[in-house]
Amino acid sequence: MSFQKIKRIFYREIYSKFKPLQYAKKIGVNFGGGTEVHLYGRISWGTEPWIITIGRNVHITAGVKFITHDGGTLLYRHLIPDLEITKPITIGNDVYIGNDVILLPGVTIGNNVVIGAGAVVSKDIPDNSVAVGIPARVIKTAEEYFEKIQKESLHLGHLKGQEKDKALMKHYGYKGNSKGIYF
After folding, report:
1. Closest Cα partner for 114 from 99, 131, 139?
2. Contact 132, 119 (CB under 8 A)
3. Of the residues 87, 102, 119, 174, which has the fewest C-beta atoms closer than 10 A?
4. Any long-range contacts for 41-49 (C-beta under 8 Å, 24+ apart)?
5. What pLDDT is stored for residue 28 in this prediction?
6. CATH fit for domain 3-140, picks 3.40.50.1860, 2.40.30.60, 2.160.10.10, 3.30.420.10
C-alpha cells in the first residue's frame, strides 16, 4: 500500500472523526460568514466537497451525507458517454441538521432552519422553517418550533457532562449511576 493511500485513509477515517471542521476545510468545503460551525461525529462530504457551502452557526450531526452528484447517470453512460449531473449544496446561517440526514444534489437550505433526523432533502428548504421526513417537507415555521420547545424545555441546556446527567437523572427519578462518556 502506497504512502499516499495510507495518508488518504488516515484523513478519511481518523482525522475526519476527531477533527471534523479541519478535515472539511482541508478537503475544500466552503465555510462562509465566519467559523461558527459545529460538526458532531462522522459526516460524509461526498466526492465534490468543494461545491458545498456552509453558512455560520450551523450544527451538522453524525451520519449526515452530502451527495453532490446523481450516481444514477452511470446506468446511461453507455448511451451518452459524457452524461453527468453534479450540483452544489448550500446551507444558510443558523441551521441545525439532525442525525443521518441526506442532502441531495442542488439543494439549498435557507436561514434559521431545522432539518429533522433521518430526513432526505431533495428540494430547497425555505428560510424560517422546520423540515422532516422522506422526502423532507416543511411541517412548521421556525417560530412555531421555538414556541413549542420553550414550553417543553427542561431548562438544563446550560449544563454539560456529568452535571447535566445528574440533573436529568433527578428530573426523571433515575436512581443508578450515569453511564455517560466524558472526554
Report:
1. 131
2. yes
3. 174
4. 41/17, 42/16, 42/17, 43/16, 48/86, 49/24
5. 93
6. 2.160.10.10
